[in-house]
Amino acid sequence: MKNFKKIFFSRLFILPVIFYLLSTILSGCVTVPVQDGLPVYYIGGAAYYPLVSLCQRRNVELKYDAVTRIVVLNADSKQVTLRPGDALVLVDQRPMRLNYPVDIYQGTVVVPRQFKEQIFDLLFKQPVFTRKYGVSKIRLSKVVIDPGHGGNDPGAIGRTGLREKDVNLDIAKRLSNLLKQEGVQTVLTRSTDKFIPLPVRANIANHGQADLFISIHSNASRTRSLNGFEIYYVAPSVSDAKRAYFAARNEALNLRNAQFASFSSDLKAIIWDMIYTNSRAESIELSQAICKAIDDDLDVKILGVKSARFQVLKGIKMPGVLIETGFLSNAGEERLLRSNAYRQRIAEGVLEGIRDYSQNLALVEAR
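Predicted structure:
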């Protein structure tokens, strides 16, 4: 009788494992390329992430009871309870239902994307690394910060109604305050919900003789799954020579202590061409520095440095970039961009990128 019970219960324990292995095979799982450093699997058409990998990245404690098959996650006094096969999870003892159930793939517990973005990412934040501000001085005098859109131009609008113009202005003000604390003078192209034409934005930067031009925006796409942080500089397809001749005819060229035997339009155009070409190279360096700082500080996908023919960047005379802080069309990033804490971290990341750029620039000038 005892042997019968032992065999019965051992088979009872093994049956669920066999069931999940069979269901996994039948549903046709396919491993897709790694996203954000995590493998992604498709089970029944839904994207799944390995739970153990998520927990390792966020220092979340994971406990698994092999008998009950219950998984418990703990970190910072927060707890999530879930079980393979169930779409119902407990978040601090409050039930939440998922569109797809927790599952098992290749012997490990996997969770649907909805669980990752709407529960895990919000509950178990990326550890905040406190930077020691002021360790290296920002070697710049003035920065123009341009909050994109405004007034009757709301920009992108998220599914819950979050407007790009509001996000841009808030992040721009936060960045401005951080730079002022570092002793850098700042100019905002708009400080209220007001529409400013693109040529006027460039003129504000040019007439203010700023060292940098930073345009803040938020992205949007018809593909709701797209997310990430990216930076643009003016495209190489924009002719520096044409811009140089236009500037030579229409813009004042202030060269302190410069003496020329002849100061013809051709000479002015050559000088403007050198300025524009150098500004583009420095814009790329600035973009790379900001991307690296954001990548170090935030758990966000970095889409990289790209070129584009943005009108607001075409007319500036100094290094300038256009930052896309995230996709309002993506439910997860819209939720993050609604958070004051997340906006502050973006501003701090941009600040550190500017700091690193200015230090590298100072090293080059010192040579």
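Summary: Residues 2-33, 129-134, 236-278, 363-367 have pLDDT under 50 and may be disordered.
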